[in-house]
Amino acid sequence: MRNFFHFSLIFAFFCGSFPFTVLGHADGQSNAIAAEIESLNFPFIESRDLQPVLVPGKEVLRKLYRQVQFEPLWLKRPEKARLLATALQHSGKHGLNPDDYFLRELRSLSRQHDTKSLARLDVLLTSALLRYSFDLSCGHIALFRADMATFKEIGDFDFEPLTLLKTIYNSDNFDQAFDSLAPQHKFYRDLQKRYGEISQNKKQRALTEKIAVNMARWRWYPHTLGDRFVIVNTPGQRLTAWKGNQQVLDMAVIVGRKEDPTPLTTGYLRWLEFHPSWAIPPDIAVKEQLPKLRKNPNHLAEKKVRLFSSWDADANELNPKRINWQKVTPEQMAKYQLRQDPGPINALGRIKFMFPNPWSVYLHDTPGKGLFKKRERGLSHGCVRVANPADLALFLLNGQDADSTKAGIQARLNGKTPETMTLKQPVPIYLTYQTVWIDNQEKIRQVSDLYGQDSRILAVMKK
To answer: CA 162, 167, 173, 175 torsion: positive or negative?
Structure first.
């Protein structure tokens, strides 16, 4: 296994010793560069309609070099090549492997004099810049290749290779330019600092790897989190609310089971619903409600759940006691709408917190308060149950009107009237997967890998 997480690797071309003595002879390279681009066989990622798309690397390089008529970008500017080589060597400070950026081949090519080798050198330097830029901006290209679907969950994807190439290339300090692409918030910087402190300690290798994986995951998310925001840490089974770098809430949550994981995603909390009803999703109706009805035809009545003929707005309400549940197929069950009325046994409790997303997950209260005492709380179908909904509501409403007080919120919770309150200022929310972080006392905190994601990511990053 290669020495993946150490950033102290020393190559002969580091800094000023990078042998570019022949690079002034760069005339007539355009045809050779075009040919080298066509020989590339590694993939890259493009942004199309704010979604990541896997494309051949040569397509991206072809577009870039066409902007300069396939003239070399680096052969006539050896000082730029040295800056890039140095910055790539420093990539380990972000938990990345310098070998991922062609450094060994670049070292070999830089000692060659033939046209083909120099053309490949130029193309690989550009490729290395783009790959490092991508990894700092978006996580790690290998992870996209291995699990594109996960990254589509996170939110809009925006990566512009040409813009980044121009920005880095025209910079006087490549290290700083690259560092600016990584997240600037405390959660990432705290991990990066601790990674630098322990990465040379072989006894801390497992922790070092775990920190690198979590840094990569933070790079998936928006790199600035906002002035006021909410973070759900799924494996940590905690929700925190923040004003800048100040944590103002910390509460236990119940998250999705392994078979129904809470997705990694982002969004904006936009409204609260007091005393909501619960439209039971078809898959839950089939998997859980149908078996219970076959055993007990009174099950729906006991749970205050009403039955409707379909999901249409004008569907007829049905009497569940008149249905022979033994003969109802899963396909038929999925067509019924089961709706639990507001009340003390409603599965959503007295309030839910809504943020539009493709998975229809949300935060909500629960009548099952005793479950928060459990150490392992991966118990839901994917939504997040919160231990202190009144405190969360108070944070989100942020005193937006006279009723947005602690007393006003509690009065609504104690009542029975369904009500929707729209947030005048939507609040960003991040459903994350942090298995290691630095707490407010600057101590390392670790939790178990609830969904086995760390091991999968680490395996991909080590290939």
So the answer is: negative
Angle at 163 between CA 157 and CA 168, to 5 degrees: 115
Q: Which two tokens stand for residue 454?
A: 């760390």
Give the pLDDT band of residue 348 (cuts 50, 70, 90): very high
Domain that holds residue 285: 278-340
Which of 311, 340, 369 lies at the terminal end of a domain, its last residue?
A: 340
pLDDT at 281 over 90: yes
Integer Cα distance of 144 and 157 in angstroms: 12
Q: Is there a contact between 310 and 262 (Cβ–Cβ < 8 Å)?
A: no
| Predicted confidence (pLDDT) at residue 325 exceeds the cutoff of 80 | yes
* Opening angle at CA 189, ends 186 and 193, nearest 5: 135
DSSP summary character for residue 358: T
The residue to which tokens 């099950």 are assigned: 299
Sign of CA dihedral 402, 403, 409, 414: positive
**Beta-carbon neighbour count of residue 390 at 10 Å?**
16
The verdict on residue 82 lying in a domain is yes
Return the structure tokens found at 328.
């109802």
**Three-state DSSP class for 426?**
strand
The SS3 call for residue 204 is: helix
- Report residue 146's pLDDT band, with 50, 70 and 90 as the boundaries: low
147 and 59 in a single domain? The answer is yes
Confidence of residue 55 (pLDDT cuts 50, 70, 90): confident
The 3-class SS string of 295-313 reads HCCCHHHHCCEEEECCCCC
Residue type, 74: W
Amino acid at site 97:
N
Find the mean pLDDT for residues 195-223.
Answer: 94
